[in-house]
Amino acid sequence: MINDTSRSFNPSVTRRGLIAMAAAASTIGSDDAFGQNPHDTTCRLADGRSLGYRIYGSLTDFPVLYFHGTPGSRLEATLLAPFCHANGVCLIAVDRPGMGRSTFSHGHSHTSWPSDVVRLIDQLEQSTSFDRFGILAMSGGTSFALACAAMLPERISATAIVSPRTPGAPGVPKGVLDNALQQAATYPRLAEGVLRRQLRRSRRNPNVMPSQFKKFSAVDRNYIRRNGTVLRQAVAEASRCGTQGIVHDMALIRWPWRICLARIGIPVGLWIGSCDYSALPETLRFLQRNIPDSRATTVLGEGHFSIIDQAVAPAAIWLKSNSV
């Protein structure tokens, strides 16, 4: 077991924080879907925008919407889909506004996102026998998953979150890269430029792990080395139309959220690694205190990314068990 949880980090609140987040972006999709034959499509929203998504598997299986991390895109689900497919779950990975194939919106927020999701579910329901969907979220997708859990109980049966993030929430210390989120909200244009430059450097040197990843646990660094191609492609896709959508999303995941967690009436499952320097143990305590029907699992020896191999299959099984 790897136990690095005694270490603590306090990055400077400078451009270095933004560069650290940009470095994370540079390592995070592949068109190889591990045999799931995924296909990309879009959903036309009421205001004319497009919402891009990729289906991994068959909609005859229980449908679960996947909300990627930040920065990320639907391609990120390539790493999770095999665990879902093996347990009878069809994963539908959705690009949030301004990333991948989804149109940017200045009005994108926690209150608008559920409306986009409803439109997508309406479209998908024509191809599945299920009238309620599950949600699986990773890291920066946490708040968007909880917004849907709070506002769409008639359409969502349960929500599972792997490596949940609550940056800036009461009682939750700063994790790795949290200062970058703060600066994205304060200096969005600067953040967009830093991200563009870091992504260009990553394309020139795709096999070089940025020095900022020294702040992650050893188990995470090993996972990133093994899956760097997939992760890099997912973020490259996120920036398909520029970095504005990524920075907007980064700003939104900081607390406070416009979500009433106490009103969430569906089950919420939380999985966190004991060696995760981004999603700290206080994150679980905060969410459990505030979400009525929540359960938490700590996976010993796993980090922010490496937990995927250990937590996604149990999360898929749990989501399916709550589908009836």
Automatic annotation (TrEMBL):
GO molecular function: hydrolase activity
Keyword entries, A-Z: Hydrolase
Domain of life: Bacteria
Gene3D superfamilies on file: alpha/beta hydrolase
Bilayer-spanning residue ranges: none
Sequence ranges assigned to domain AB hydrolase-1 in this UniProt record: 63-309
Pfam families on file: Abhydrolase_1
Name assigned to this protein: Alpha/beta hydrolase family protein
Organism: Stieleria neptunia
